[in-house]
Amino acid sequence: MGSAVDLSVNLGTFSLANPVLGASGTFGYGLEFTPFVDLNRIGGFCTKGLSLKPRIGNPAPRVVETAAGMLNSIGLENVGFDRFRDEKLPHLQMYNCRVICNFFGDTVAEYEEMAHALSLLERVDALEMNISCPNVEEGGVQFSADPKTVEKVVGAARRATDKFLIVKLSPNVTDITQTAKAAEAAGANAVSLVNTYVGMVLDAETARPYLGNGNGTGGLSGPAIKPIALNMVYQTSQAVTIPVIGLGGIRTAEDAIEYILAGASAIQVGTANFFDPRATMKILDGLTDWCREHGIDRIESLRGRAWKK
Description:
Layout: E1 9-11, E2 14-16, E3 20-22, E4 44-46, E5 63-66, E6 69-72, H1 80-88, E7 98-103, H2 108-119, E8 126-130, E9 134-135, E10 141-142, H3 147-160, E11 164-168, H4 176-185, E12 190-193, E13 197-200, E14 202-203, E15 208-209, E16 217-221, H5 226-239, E17 244-247, H6 253-261, E18 266-269, H7 272-275, H8 279-293
Parallel strand pairs: 3-4, 3-18, 4-7, 7-8, 8-11, 11-12, 12-17, 17-18
Antiparallel strand pairs: 1-2, 5-6, 6-16, 9-10, 13-16, 14-15
């Protein structure tokens, strides 16, 4: 068996049994993965992004495979707050893992209302704000586009909840460290990065975009983005004092270790869940094996080693 390895991690006031989390949009509401994943073993998961009212999402086709990942334009389809509370959450009571509710809104007021509503749900352990959404009050510009807007929307959510608040950052900005600093200034307890990159796939036969959402663009995820996302985690973890959760192209335990070395307190597994629904479990087991092989008895000791001199 070898020596025991302590995989527990501490994100300030929020602790995890281990750093492995299922990423929002790829892990459903957790329940879909129970045939493949022991939810009592992983650190937790982020739900599919939730809104106040149900959303049907974008027209098909909504997903296309790329050379080293995938492009999606799901359109934030979800069951809405009421159905999540009444139909999904009760089935999660039997599991010990952390339930992190990802949420979004079209306006600052909707973010505030959603944060308050989720804060009333006892089984919800933490919230994750998706700010890669258009602000309909400002002509559709993404909330993540400007640090002042980030500070405004995060501040509104912060005032509405006493839950541990994670802000999920978009990489489609000039300087992600400034976005992270704005989120921290507004009261975020942690940041998660990165969300998907804007991309496009064309059908060579029709000369039209493959995705059917009107503008043809979608979010690129998977191994293709890992080097860029890893660099952003490396930079951001040195720019803020709050914990950083890393994601982007994580498929193996070694990928997860790289993010932790770059300064991440925890990691999220996303696209890998689509081609292997047991990816989170394999990465978790791999972390223990890697630490044993390298004489590491506590995984938190690796955090930030890449930039600590």
